[in-house]
Amino acid sequence: MKLLDWLLGVIINPGQTFREIAREKPVGWAFLLYVGLTTLTSWVSGIDLLELDISPWQLLMFSLIVYIIMFFVLTGLLNLIAKVFRGTGSYWGLFSTLAFANFPGIFLPVGRLLGQVAGQAGNLLSGIISFAVFIWVVVLDILALRESHGLSAGKSFLAYFLVGLILLAFLLITLVAGLLSMPEL
Amino acid sequence: MSGKRILVVVLIGLAVLSAILLTITSTQEGKRLSELERVVVIYLQGPIMESAGGFSFSSGGITPRRVARQLERAAKDKSIKAVVLRIDSPGGSVAASQEIAAMIRNFEKPLVVSMADMAASGGYYISAPADGIVAHPGTMTGSIGVIFSMVYLDGFYEKLGIETEIIKSGKHKDMFSRKLTPEERRLIQEISDGAYEQFVSEVAQGRGLDEDYVRELATGQLYLGSHALELGLVDRLGGIEESIELAAEIAGLKNPVKYEFPEPSFFQQLTQLSSALPLLIKELTVSPEMLLLERMEQGRFGPQLRYQLAVP
Question: A107: which chain B residues are within 8 Å (Cβ-Cβ)?
């Protein structure tokens, strides 16, 4: 069961595991893992909306479609910038490693449940766990980029944050364009 | 299967189990929410107008669109069992007042109006169809009546050196471009009287009063809350707490809980501010004369029929 070994490897030995995943490119498993994790985390994040008149299934489907498209696009963008930095990896190698890098998201539902059990301090606890998982995934993403493209840690870091900056700029432009086209309140 | 692999399987199982447990507890929480007896307080402040055009640092007034949004939200929320509308308004547009009054009349949950400093003219018009009205002893209310106004701009145009020429089809088509003739004054008076009768009818129907009695009160005069209670224009004296009590009584609530919709998030506030930025920039950069001319072109100084305390 290579999949289980890889999943465990992401947690205990990410560098070597990402190298192996980048070489073998298990695209099918990676896609399934990404969809599974996104389904789980989107469901848990959207639970608060159950009291509203929004169908949780519609919300889940919408989130899934958006996240999957975003993942493909982000991987492409990251791959492009990695190539500019003279990276030697491939799109599908990066795709597979980045999908596996999301595995710590598995702790989010557990953290959320622990937070709920913890009473008043629950929100804080849940927030701390979510933040820790976020940082963990960012670090793993940079590692995944480094291992799949054979870049230095510095270049991987730079490439990753360049993508972040591009996304931020894109979001700001979209926001401003959207606001300017909004009708008067 | 090695111990490490079992660990991964356990981890995945734990995550799925947590998600299931969270779903179950949230559903129960949702049920508990619908069992809550919330009375939401919605604040409506400022003049009643059709739309909040232009940029303003003030509250922006009461528009049918804003009221509809708030009432829809209250209607959808199962935890909200009754509504208190806290009104502070000198009135305003006739059509907007009538639209808001219709929304309040047709609102399915118990709704009580709590009057603040002033709920006069259109402010009273929108209060009348509520299930109950609570006012402070010192609230200024009433002012049941209609006011028509128009601005003569001839002198202003002359000063600017603007000449106008009017070719009309229809005897009275240019009546608002010059001084009214006695016949036109009578026509406008008829319109005003019609809107007045609509006001009287709304108050009589909403308050369960006789129309002739309301007509006696509808002289356009203001009443203090304490006097309005004696006249039957309001049901009780008090503030928000008393209004919540009345709403709870009407809704048959045992444990009413005061509730207010959460304030917009920082991002939402930023979005609202950003959307008003082009207007703000325009108002700051364009000369006052140009703005005035633009408003004249838009007909902002045109004839106005209003359920309003005073027209500036």
Answer: 15
